[in-house]
Backbone:
């Protein structure tokens, strides 16, 4: 069987598993998918802020958040950072960040998230950004006020974040569904976002 067919069958079964965890009041499952690309997420961010503003206007609730209107949120690269921020539970069942707050945080910390590795530039190495600098910001991003380090289980919505495993040369998907079923899949959220952001030509591979 061709590899593409095997991959399709595997992900079809995984998709059924992930969707089975969604508690939708209708037969349709509402999925918000946020793309990556670039380091600022400016296009996705602007679209999400507009979406949240419209949701609040239509709902008549100035505090309504995007996560309240979707069953599952997915993202990759910088889109995964935003997806995780919109899903991270503050401990009361509500997201820590609104769309506007998430975009503002990424914008203010963009130079730290994607800090240019000047030594690598001097030595003509391919790894362009500092992984340590990004790690520090992500740890701050996904920590509650009481110091709790958030994991995949600490989401108020189902979350899907893909990455590529260089050891197995195959895609891997982090999900709240898997984390809920097995502690071995309940990774720290900052590590999940670090893994999906570790583009080989820009960062050292994340272990």
Residues:
């Amino acid at each position: 069987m061709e590899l593409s067919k095997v991959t399709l069958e595997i992900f079809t079964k995984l998709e059924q598993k992930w969707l089975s965890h969604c508690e939708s009041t209708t037969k349709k499952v509402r999925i918000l998918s946020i793309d990556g690309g670039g380091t600022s997420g400016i296009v996705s961010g602007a679209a999400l802020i507009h979406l949240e503003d419209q949701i609040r206007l239509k709902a008549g609730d100035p505090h309504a958040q995007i996560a309240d209107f979707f069953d599952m949120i997915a993202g990759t690269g910088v889109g995964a950072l935003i997806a995780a921020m919109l899903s991270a539970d503050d401990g009361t069942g509500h997201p820590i960040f609104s769309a506007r707050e998430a975009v503002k945080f990424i914008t203010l910390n963009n130079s730290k998230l994607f800090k240019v590795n000047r030594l690598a530039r001097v030595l003509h190495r391919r790894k362009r950004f500092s992984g340590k600098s990004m790690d520090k910001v992500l740890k701050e991003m996904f920590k509650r006020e009481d110091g709790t380090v958030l994991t995949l289980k600490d989401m108020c919505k189902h979350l899907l974040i893909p990455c590529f495993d260089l050891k197995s040369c195959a895609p891997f998907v982090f999900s709240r569904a898997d984390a809920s079923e097995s502690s071995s899949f309940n990774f720290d959220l900052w590590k999940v976002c670090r893994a999906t952001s570790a583009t080989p030509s820009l960062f050292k591979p994340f272990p």
